[in-house]
């Protein structure tokens, strides 16, 4: 059997198309974007706009920050843990029951629970049942000796119950999460056998990736174990392929059953220049990013300042199907300004009037997302 070989140019186009980054973003269909991506990572850091808002805006340019909470309040999406805290389409709930159990086992007895005893968790459940949605500020347990990352007992207990699927996020006020009983947030769903959930998760991951290794399929949701993915791959209707990397080397992968149809219909990437969020799902796997695009990118917010090469929160610049640089920009909502501190172009990429104009247009669009009025360049 001849293995289908996918050139680097085609692999890039497939990858960007699968992640909604081929055509020019239009409209405000946040729900459609979340369904297509499978999940959107949540993050509390706000340099210009928080990661989840930025990711949605990159694909739906009329998206604005309040729209996501509206979807949460309408019960069209739910929050839980993939590789990190994320928002998922409510249609994923039947495949997510085992993930609640997996996360309950994973965090049970860990630092998340710690001194959060069964008595405390039952007290919290009783209060939420009787009083309605509550947030961490509605509880007053304290940490006796404050240390980095250490949390009060009630915070640990709330998170544990959230991971276990006994509590669910019902809405947010800013970044503050309000918890309610899961039975009052989640609709009744069909109870699928565990193997059905595993198969569904793996198939849904590969469908959204287009192609990937067994490890990449597992990492997509981070809701199945390596042995489970290997067993699924052995039995599933998948296509073995070889993918050409940016450096000309080839690696084995699996592709969705309709990979040839995707190859024949995948669009050319628009020449638009985009400012992507550091947590965008298209670039989350830095190893794969470098392999496919030759772009070496690291988030340096956890790197000591003296050792940073670029900066605390630096955004990749995607132009067409090529990463052409990175930009250090910061929003000031009180002043209404987006300050550009520095732009770095990749080797072989030359600034030009046309490229500068594309970057300026994207900065103006980013201002509108964050409610800022002007772009200013640092001296």
TrEMBL record:
InterPro entries in alphabetical order: AlkZ-like
Source organism superkingdom: Bacteria
PANTHER family: CYTOPLASMIC PROTEIN
Name of this protein: Winged helix-turn-helix domain-containing protein
Organism field: Sagittula marina
């Amino acid at each position: 059997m001849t293995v289908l070989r996918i050139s680097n140019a085609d692999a890039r186009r497939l990858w960007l198309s699968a992640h909604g980054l081929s055509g020019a973003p239009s409209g405000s269909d946040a729900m459609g974007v979340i369904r297509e991506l499978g999940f959107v990572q949540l993050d509390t850091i706000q340099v210009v706009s928080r990661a989840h808002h930025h990711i949605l805006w990159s694909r739906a340019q009329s998206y604005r920050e309040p729209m996501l909470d509206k979807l949460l309040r309408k019960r069209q999406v739910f929050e839980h843990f993939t590789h990190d805290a994320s928002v998922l389409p409510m249609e994923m709930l039947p495949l997510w029951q085992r993930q609640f159990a997996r996360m309950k086992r994973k965090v049970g007895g860990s630092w998340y629970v710690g001194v959060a005893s069964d008595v405390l968790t039952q007290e919290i459940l009783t209060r939420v049942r009787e009083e309605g949605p509550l947030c961490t500020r509605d509880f007053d347990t304290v940490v006796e000796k404050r240390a980095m990352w250490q949390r009060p007992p009630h915070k640990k207990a709330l998170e544990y119950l959230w991971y276990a699927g006994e509590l669910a996020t019902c809405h947010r006020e800013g970044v503050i999460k309000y918890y309610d009983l899961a039975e009052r947030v989640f609709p009744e769903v069909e109870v699928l056998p565990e193997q059905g959930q595993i198969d569904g998760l793996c198939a849904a991951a590969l469908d959204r990736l287009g192609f990937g290794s067994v490890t990449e399929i597992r990492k997509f949701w981070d809701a199945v174990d390596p042995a489970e993915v290997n067993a699924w791959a052995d039995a599933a209707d998948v296509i073995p392929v070889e993918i050409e990397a940016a450096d000309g080397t080839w690696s084995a992968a699996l592709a969705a059953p309709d990979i040839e149809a995707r190859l024949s219909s995948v669009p050319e990437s628009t020449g638009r220049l985009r400012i992507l969020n550091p947590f965008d799902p298209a670039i989350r796997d830095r190893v794969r990013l470098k392999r496919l695009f030759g772009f070496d990118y690291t988030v340096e917010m956890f790197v000591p300042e003296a050792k940073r090469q670029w900066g605390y929160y630096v955004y990749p610049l995607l132009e067409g199907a090529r990463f052409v640089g990175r930009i250090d920009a910061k929003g000031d909502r009180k002043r209404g300004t987006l300050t550009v501190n520095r732009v770095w172009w990749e080797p072989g990429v030359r600034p030009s009037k046309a490229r500068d104009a594309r970057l300026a247009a994207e900065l103006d669009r980013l201002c509108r997302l964050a409610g800022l009025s002007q772009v200013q360049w640092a001296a």
